[in-house]
Write a structure and sequence with these properties.
Number of helices: 2
Order of helices and strands: HEHEEEE
Strand order of the largest sheet: 1-2-3-4-5
Strand content: over 45%
Structural class: alpha+beta
Largest sheet: 5 strands, antiparallel
Length: 106
């Protein structure tokens, strides 16, 4: 009960995602977003440029789940200002990566 109440007072639940604003400019996060944009290009036939990472959240499991919100400009369409995208990427403790979800919202 103490652990749950402490988590509630901080705005997070044990086992849930935690905001990590200090990771916004981290090279690992940039690498993960690049991998996600490649997958989005393949699955949604959408090329992205001018990427801005907006929010990073992590969840510790048998590794780390990264949930990353980012905005991007669809290339080469100059008529669309920016679109919002989100990726969830699982990084195991041995550094192997798996993109579990990556999509943009048009």
């Amino acid at each position: 009960v103490v652990t749950l109440s402490a988590g509630l007072s901080l705005g997070t639940l044990p086992g849930g995602f935690t905001d990590r604003p200090e990771l916004l400019k981290d090279p690992l996060i940039e690498s993960l977003v690049n991998a996600a944009t490649r997958q989005i290009s393949e699955t949604q036939n959408l090329r992205l440029g001018e990427i801005e990472i907006l929010r990073v959240r992590t969840q510790i499991v048998a590794g780390v789940n990264y949930k990353i919100d980012f905005a991007a400009r669809p290339a080469p369409d100059p008529t669309v200002e920016r679109i919002n995208c989100q990726a969830t990427i699982y990084v195991r403790f041995d550094s192997t990566r798996q993109i579990t979800q990556a999509q943009c919202f048009l």
